[in-house]
């Protein structure tokens, strides 16, 4: 099978869209398929032997390091030259629209993956136009042959916008990278010594956040955990909210961005993982924490509802209720047995969610399901 992937983001950027595309391409190659990547530039033009077509882009005002792809005739030329069986549109908004138009003109079916809630992103940054953006997102997905959503909440969101032919397709987790075996006692002990609350260092529970430090992740809620008795707070990641967090979390440890083996060790060396964002379409870091054998605390809204079964594979807090986050973390900090139970169950939940399994599902059910579809040529 020949698959062309038109993505709004790719290496050297590091984010959820890039990671998903990379894992999809890796598995396609391993299974003997051919692939082409179309992405906004600049960046590498070859990924593991796969051609990466770079198109014009502009910087996003709120994210200067994020190139936004622009309509470019290279997109249609690349697809026409490659002649794929299916076009995979990864989190389309701008370049994805160009990919959709080109695919429909060429009569190629599309599988469109909804991953980023752009209208919600605009609301978080108080940028006007979220309603118009939602209509634009709906327009793209309504014209796709098939749309894949990562969770039930994302399904409901697009269904309310009138998008048809929705299918839930979750994300995989790198089980070769993440695991409890990577827990590093020395690192855990060094983190546990930070806290300043008078607790014995060996008795402190290490509570950590992993992810981008940005407004849409609502990371300022970590302040609610500052100075929580018997805990040490670790913040793993980077982003525009870092200066604010450093100022208001003086006792926390900040590691900066970690990747690969360093990230796996850091995850496994936590005692509790906390996610603060209440507007996630999925939340990959929850799965990575579960794969690392770390109990999870997450908001009872959005994508986490598909990943965390309350009191079985993690704990859910009510993001709209004051003190709910603090009380939920306190409960877990004070109950070592519950932490162990949630960690065991969370690990079991992701045991069959490897990227290999998830991408094989994508190929067999969704790519194969649209090839030969009769609605591809409708006007975009």
TrEMBL record:
One Pfam family from the record: Glycos_transf_1
Domain of life: Bacteria
Residue ranges of every copy of the Glycosyltransferase subfamily 4-like N-terminal domain listed in the record: 14-176
GO MF, one example: hexosyltransferase activity
UniProt keyword annotations, A-Z: Glycosyltransferase, Transferase
Biological processes, Gene Ontology terms: carbohydrate derivative biosynthetic process
Domain Glycosyl transferase family: start-end pairs: 200-346
Protein name: Glycosyl transferase
């Amino acid at each position: 099978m020949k698959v062309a992937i038109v993505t709004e983001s790719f290496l050297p950027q590091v984010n959820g869209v890039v990671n998903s595309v990379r894992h999809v391409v890796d598995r396609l190659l391993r299974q003997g398929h051919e692939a082409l990547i179309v992405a906004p530039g600049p960046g590498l033009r070859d990924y593991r032997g796969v051609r990466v077509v770079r198109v014009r882009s502009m910087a996003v005002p709120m994210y200067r390091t994020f190139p936004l792809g622009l309509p470019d005739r290279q997109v249609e030329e690349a697809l026409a030259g490659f002649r794929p069986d299916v076009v995979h549109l990864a989190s389309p908004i701008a370049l994805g629209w160009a990919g959709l138009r080109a695919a429909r003109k060429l009569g190629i079916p599309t599988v469109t993956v909804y991953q980023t809630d752009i209208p919600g992103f605009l609301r978080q940054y108080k940028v006007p136009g979220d309603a118009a953006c939602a209509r634009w997102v709906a327009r793209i997905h309504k014209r796709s042959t098939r749309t894949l959503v990562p969770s039930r909440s994302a399904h409901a969101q697009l269904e309310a916008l009138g998008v048809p032919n929705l299918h839930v397709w979750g994300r995989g987790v790198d089980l070769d990278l993440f695991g409890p075996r990577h827990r590093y006692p020395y690192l855990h002990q060094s983190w546990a010594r930070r806290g300043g609350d008078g607790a014995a260092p060996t008795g402190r529970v290490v509570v950590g956040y992993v992810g981008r430090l940005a407004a849409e992740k609502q990371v300022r809620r970590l302040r609610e955990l500052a100075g929580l008795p018997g805990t040490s707070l670790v913040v793993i990641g980077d982003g525009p909210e870092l200066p604010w967090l450093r100022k208001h979390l003086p006792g926390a440890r900040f590691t900066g961005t970690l990747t690969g083996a360093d990230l796996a060790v850091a995850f496994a060396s936590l005692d509790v993982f906390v996610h603060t964002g209440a507007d996630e379409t999925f939340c990959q870091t929850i799965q990575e924490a579960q794969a690392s054998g770390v109990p999870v605390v997450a908001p009872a809204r959005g994508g986490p509802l598909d990943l965390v079964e309350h009191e079985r594979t993690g704990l859910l807090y009510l993001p709209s209720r004051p003190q709910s986050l603090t009380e939920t973390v306190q409960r877990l900090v004070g109950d070592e047995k519950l932490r162990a139970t949630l960690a065991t169950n969370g690990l079991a939940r992701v045991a069959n969610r490897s990227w290999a399994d998830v991408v094989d599902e994508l190929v067999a059910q969704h790519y194969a399901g649209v090839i030969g579809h009769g609605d591809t040529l409708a006007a975009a």
